Model the fold of this input.
Amino acid sequence: MSELISAEARSWIGRSAEPVRIEISRTDIKKYSIATEQQQEKFLNGDEAPSMFMFGALRPVVPMDQLGPDGIAAESFLPDLPLKRVMAGGTEMTFHRPVKPGDVLIATKTLHDLIPKEGKSGPLIFVVTKLRVETEGGELVLEEQQTRIFR
Done:
């Protein structure tokens, strides 16, 4: 089973993508809050972002022809893997403080692990990434561990 993941792909474990810098505006928080039907005034006024705001805020804005069949921009950070179909495997998020308008955040994604497994219908590769979001001053805002399953 270990031959499913090449030595080249394994060498990516621990590698981080180029950090992404994002400035949080009150308008962006308001738009997100209205679109997701938030009820609390602090969200609707843009004083604080709802917890899932960061889920989409870090996604790149790309032309339609650069979106995959799932509507998400293709991931260029991962090594080439022999299995190409991708499924969600789970997300764990730890919020250390609210996201506020005026925050300038730095997000860094790291490939944490590649785990080969045998499923009922064949081989699988569990790809585990970790995301760390901090303010420009280094204050921790959010940690996320995401698992995607390639089959």
Summary: The helical segments are 7-10, 26-35, 41-44, 53-57. The mean pLDDT is 92.
